[in-house]
Backbone:
């Protein structure tokens, strides 16, 4: 791991965290975006639309050679020249050499992320060409000497006073920071350059194989001017922009503006094919198709879905990490979730290493991706690759490989820790202040003490009198419920017994393996998967119930993936996945248990936090609400109920505690706004995070697992 | 679909007027411009006699030297091949350079549209897109949805950036029934 790279990264994180103006802007934008997007998709079936785009883009990937040939043939027949650039350098060199041949002095550019990717402007300027960005956001950052911090709104991180200062330098007089005035300044300043430029460089949102033409999706009008006035037009287009037909192009047009900015359509869609009339002659059109790592991406089975990306920027708009630190931290050239992946392939794993770890894993991006890319899943895979390349760190290696895999050793160490912690906990359940160099861990959240008696030790002392059990279920507790919150386990038994369900606790169960897997240690995760499958299936339970959705994801999804190449274990993993179910869903869907709890609660005002892995992993968000409302709680919704709490496993401890703290703060504010005296959720990790934050800030709001609230009022 | 088109266009800041004949169209344009108007030769407008009507209303017309005279012009006038109702979009075959300069350089764009040429949505437009590609060896087709805009500074929406600040659609029945002509 490059120390210097990491140091620079940490500095950028600190800087961003110290910029409340930036955070406010990104948070406000995120809120406005969600509403605008919802309105834009009203009456449309987003799921169906994105399934269609995913399938079309996968077809393009599979037939890419054929489609590139078809596109080239049609483009050349219409008078364009097509050049396939294998690398960024090849693309830049082609364009610089073309400019030299054509006697180009001045270049105007309309927005092109591909040109940011290849650092084209540097190459043009090195060749002595005057290069002017004409897209307002791009011109602003060109003047500021910065790179874009968002794919669609490059200057979202800048403010009107900063822009006024930049423009004042251009005009030589003090420009007011009134935004319409600033836009007028840009219009006036850039107008002449279209008329003077010898070459216009654009990107393209699509390249249509059927016609050999490109399509540009824009709002400002500069792309139309830049592709009309100069005698040479160069379009730099990533290979992934290919679509087979005009119908496919139209399907993308129906989704891209809606998902990017909440517009039904942008002001201009420009379809350019071939050498169009230009002054007294014809335009010289050169289409540079850019590879630069896209072929390598296509060859990676775990990562290649990233080629479906239509560059809408939505994954940034909804990302809690992006909203906290912005695109100059959580990005390289491309930003946010897709940026992590594309940086690895276009700019090298070295440049992606810090970004790969900066993702908190909340899957907000996956929910809005118009190409149905499992962005988080791919990022986890990259973390694994990085783990192989750079190592996962001695500390983690020790814990995962040597301690955790040995279940008895692991558990006896936790028991020992429970004894050793006494001076710090002073017998209380919460640790408010850790001593010395550990103090930063409790700076903004209290931590729970390890339970004196883990759940597994007290299990046999819990009476279960179920006369005629409807089901016999096995409880997969997970580390937190076993060693930190055993009371949730006993509440689960109480509640399920009440519903005539008997619960067993297979003692051989171990950690679900997610901490190892998400850190990149696949080997340990496989070993733990096998241990747990054997343990949970041993007594042939009807169901395996969980109270931790990360464990649920592990049993339902990760075990299958880890063992897919081993036919014997793959079958067992399938059996376990099929019977694993989160307890709230179990109670509502399998036991029809809503009515059983009717009016047991005293009308307490409760709000509900959707855990990332529960809603966007297991697909559960209605059932807990039904149980809470149905049991007589006054259920009120908080703003951003499904926004991450900032836990993210080791994210809030070792990897990015500073970012996690900000995200938690947002959640505590949202909870407070509701006026509820209790916040419910179905995840012990979120409990630890949220309860810790509420306690530290001394809020009179309790944080409870839904199963605890159901148990509370049972007689 | 006409109502849907009008609503959608107004939502994105376009202006709409119903004109019964070329005289009313010319009067509307004359009332909204302050200088020379770019008017490239277009079949439906020629048939309607727009040039004469505008000159009768005292509008100075530019009919050539587009690159030279375009930057100073007050407005551009075009027809429309057809329109899309759900998004309030005009579709213009802008392969001829004059049409591109007319619709990008001046601050105002007036488009005469026959209300009978409004399709439901972009999917319905695909056969015509294909048709344009089949009829000509090269194309520059434009979907125009309202005036130009940006939100690049603090996400504050500003109408009128590099393209036109105003888009006026004049609905004129009987102007044209041919989707491939302007």
Residues:
């Amino acid at each position: 791991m490059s120390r210097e790279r990491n140091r620079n990264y940490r500095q950028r994180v600190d800087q961003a965290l110290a910029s409340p103006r930036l955070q406010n802007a990104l948070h406000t934008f995120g809120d406005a975006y969600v509403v605008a997007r919802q309105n834009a998709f009203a009456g449309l079936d987003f799921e169906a639309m994105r399934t269609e785009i995913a399938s079309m883009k996968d077809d393009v990937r599979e037939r890419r050679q054929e489609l590139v040939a078809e596109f080239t043939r049609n483009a050349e027949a219409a008078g364009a020249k097509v050049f396939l650039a294998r690398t960024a350098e090849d693309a830049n060199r082609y364009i610089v050499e073309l400019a030299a041949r054509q006697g180009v002095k001045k270049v105007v550019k309309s927005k092109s992320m591909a040109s940011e990717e290849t650092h084209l402007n540097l190459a043009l300027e090195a060749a002595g060409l005057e290069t002017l960005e004409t897209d307002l956001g791009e011109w602003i950052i060109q003047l500021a000497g910065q790179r874009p911090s968002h794919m669609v709104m490059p200057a979202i991180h800048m403010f009107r006073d900063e822009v006024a200062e930049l423009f004042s330098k251009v005009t030589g007089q003090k420009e007011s920071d009134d935004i319409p005035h600033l836009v007028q300044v840009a219009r006036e300043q850039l107008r002449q350059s279209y008329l003077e430029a010898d070459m216009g460089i654009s990107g393209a949102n699509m390249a249509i194989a059927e016609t050999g033409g490109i399509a540009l999706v824009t709002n400002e009008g500069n792309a139309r001017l830049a592709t009309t006035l100069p005698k040479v037009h160069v379009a730099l287009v990533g290979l992934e922009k290919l679509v087979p037909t005009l119908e496919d192009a139209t399907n993308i047009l129906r989704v891209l503006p809606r998902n990017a900015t909440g517009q039904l359509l942008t002001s201009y869609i420009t379809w350019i094919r071939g050498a169009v009339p230009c002054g007294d002659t014809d335009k010289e059109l050169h289409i540079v198709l850019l590879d630069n790592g896209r072929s390598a991406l296509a060859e990676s089975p775990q990562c290649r879905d990233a080629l479906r990306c239509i560059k809408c920027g939505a994954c940034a708009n909804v990302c809690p990490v992006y909203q906290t630190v912005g695109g100059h931290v959580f990005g390289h050239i491309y930003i946010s979730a897709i940026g992590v992946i594309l940086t690895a392939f276009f700019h090298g794993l070295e440049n992606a290493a810090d970004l790969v770890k900066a993702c908190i894993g909340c899957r907000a991006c996956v929910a809005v991706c118009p190409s149905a890319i499992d962005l988080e899943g791919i990022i986890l895979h990259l973390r694994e690759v990085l783990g192989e390349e750079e190592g996962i760190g001695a500390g983690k290696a020790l814990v995962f490989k040597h301690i955790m895999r040995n279940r008895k050793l692991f558990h006896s160490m936790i028991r020992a820790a429970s004894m050793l912690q006494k001076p710090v906990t002073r017998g209380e359940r919460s640790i408010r202040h850790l001593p010395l160099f550990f103090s930063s861990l409790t700076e903004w959240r209290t931590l729970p003490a390890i339970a004196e008696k883990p759940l597994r030790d007290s299990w046999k002392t819990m009476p279960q009198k179920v006369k005629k059990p409807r089901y016999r279920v096995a409880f997969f507790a997970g580390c937190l419920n076993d060693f930190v919150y055993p009371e949730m386990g006993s509440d689960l038994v109480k509640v399920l017994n009440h519903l005539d369900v008997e619960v067993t606790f297979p003692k051989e169960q171990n950690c679900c393996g997610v901490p190892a897997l998400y850190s990149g240690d696949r080997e340990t995760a496989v070993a733990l998967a096998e241990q747990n499958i054997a343990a949970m299936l041993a007594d042939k339970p009807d169901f395996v119930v969980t109270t931790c959705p990360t464990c649920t994801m592990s049993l339902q999804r990760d075990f299958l993936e880890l063992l897919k190449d081993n036919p014997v274990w793959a079958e067992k993993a399938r059996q376990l996945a099929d019977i694993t179910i989160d307890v709230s869903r179990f109670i509502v869907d399998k036991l029809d248990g809503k009515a059983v709890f009717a009016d047991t609660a005293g009308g307490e005002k409760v709000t509900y936090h959707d855990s990332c892995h529960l809603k966007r992993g297991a697909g559960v968000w209605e059932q807990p609400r039904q149980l809470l409302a149905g049991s007589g709680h006054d259920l009120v919704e908080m703003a951003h109920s499904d926004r991450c709490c900032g836990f993210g496993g080791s994210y809030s401890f070792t990897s990015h505690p500073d970012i996690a703290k900000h995200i938690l703060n947002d959640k505590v504010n949202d909870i407070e706004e509701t006026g509820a005296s209790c916040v419910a959720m179905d995840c012990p990790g979120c409990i630890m995070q949220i309860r810790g934050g509420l306690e530290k800030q001394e809020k009179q709001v309790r944080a409870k697992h839904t199963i605890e609230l159901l148990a509370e009022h049972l007689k | 679909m006409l109502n849907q088109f009008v609503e959608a266009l107004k939502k994105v800041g376009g202006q709409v007027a119903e004109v019964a004949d070329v005289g009313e169209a010319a009067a509307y344009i004359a009332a909204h411009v302050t200088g020379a108007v770019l008017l490239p030769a277009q079949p439906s407008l020629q048939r309607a006699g727009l040039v004469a009507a505008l000159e009768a209303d005292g509008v100075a017309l530019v009919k050539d030297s587009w690159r030279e005279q375009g930057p100073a012009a007050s407005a551009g006038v075009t027809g429309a091949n057809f329109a899309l109702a759900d998004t309030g979009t005009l579709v213009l075959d802008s392969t001829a350079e004059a049409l591109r300069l007319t619709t990008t350089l001046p601050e105002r764009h007036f488009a005469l549209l026959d209300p009978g040429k409004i399709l439901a949505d972009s999917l319905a437009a695909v056969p015509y897109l294909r048709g344009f590609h089949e009829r000509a060896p090269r194309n520059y087709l434009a979907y125009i949805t309202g005036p130009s805009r940006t939100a690049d500074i603090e996400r504050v929406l500003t109408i009128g950036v590099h393209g036109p600040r105003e888009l006026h659609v004049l609905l004129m029945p009987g102007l044209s029934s041919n989707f491939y002509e302007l």
Remarks:
- The longest strand of chain B covers residues 108-113.
- Chain B has a mean pLDDT of 97.
- The two ends of chain B are 20 Å apart (CA to CA).
- The first helix of chain B runs from residue 2 to 11.
